[in-house]
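Before we proceed, please read the two lines closing this message. Let me know whether the structure tokens fit the sequence:

…
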Amino acid sequence: MKKLIDSKYAYTALLWLLLPYAFFHLYWRSRKQPEYLEHVDERFGRYDVSCDKPVIWLHTVSVGETRAAVTLVQNLRARYPDHQILLSHTTPTGRAAGEQLFGDDVIRVYLPYDYPFAVKRFLRHFRPRIGVLLETEIWFNLIHACHAEAIPVLLLNARLSEKSARSYARFPRLARMSLHELFLISAQTEDDATRLASLANRAVPVMGNLKFDITPPAAMLELGRHFRALFGKRPVLLLASTREGEEELLLDAMRKQQIEHLLVVIVPRHPQRFDEVASLVEKHGLHMQRRSSNETISLHTQVVLGDSMGEMFAYYASCDLAFIGGSLLPFGGQNLIEACAAGTPLLIGMHTYNFEQAAELAVANGAAIRVAHAADLVKQLDILMRDSTQLNNMGEAGKQFVSNNRGATKHAMAHIALALDHALYNKIVSGQVKSAP
């Protein structure tokens, strides 16, 4: 026990030592994304917004987790109309995605940094009935404070890569304590469950992946048709959610092996890189137009820069073939399920450890093809653009692959219902609410 307490104090002491860096980090990120300097008080547990309804709190770090939670939030609002949904985020893009997807129907705030005083302020201000952490969010002081306040916290849609498991294993007692203080853990895959169970020394069920339950919005599919009309009848390759260094590799490879009339649409993963990628395209001497101009694409245009947020489904619906970024270089890949749901044939790189099972299943089901490097991607691109039958088969295989793996939301709702019942029982026992006569 003493070693456990010492580990917790050491962790918190390290956070205090890093406090100046927290401010520097916000300033540094704001140089490319000014929104990082907005709502800074929230990162230390001070909030202007409040509500008088029982709160169901979900933590969705950034854009990917927020979009994955769409079906879950819709189900929660329908089943618990007398509750308020609170979404906490870490990044401005996640917060913006929450606003775009849910409007004023949910409260959106930043999750405070994991300082004991900040998380206590957060919990006392909103008094959530339960908390739901999505994917890999394990914050030691936050989880402990919830446990101390008898607030059930669930880690749902949980994933834990081998790399992350090794990192947490450096603090085995602290990690095990936090995982034991969670009300429930439910993993995306058997591999995730095995790693989490080993770290936590507790049973971890498998619920599947919430991302499979998403449905392409009709408005985005219609926008995709509009994009396609702007693009014309040329073959269209989408470079989706690309990361730093990948665009240059791909543009160099395509310049060496040109494909006639090809239009390349580049949508960088992070909006703060839009101008950087635009400069890179210009450096390659390519004629470029921006999505934000909303103009018909000229026949002389070789690259369209997707400098917009929240329109990825539309981009998928408008292209013939997509490459999922973050996988050509060792970034771990990005979510490919949305593309499959839209019926888009896919190319993916070798680095997909953040979405390993989904990537392997997509390849096994014929919805995606792996490429070893940029030149291999261009080679596959050339082959596929000449074979409309294979492209169509890949698109249909993607839709079927997504359909076969739906169902995680149902499991999540059952877990949340159990936690809400437990929370209500605790309140009745403590006398905070009266039981029915």
Q: What stands out?
A: The CA atoms of residues 320 and 370 lie 17 Å apart. The longest strand covers residues 128-134. The chain has two domains: 2-208+407-430, 218-404.
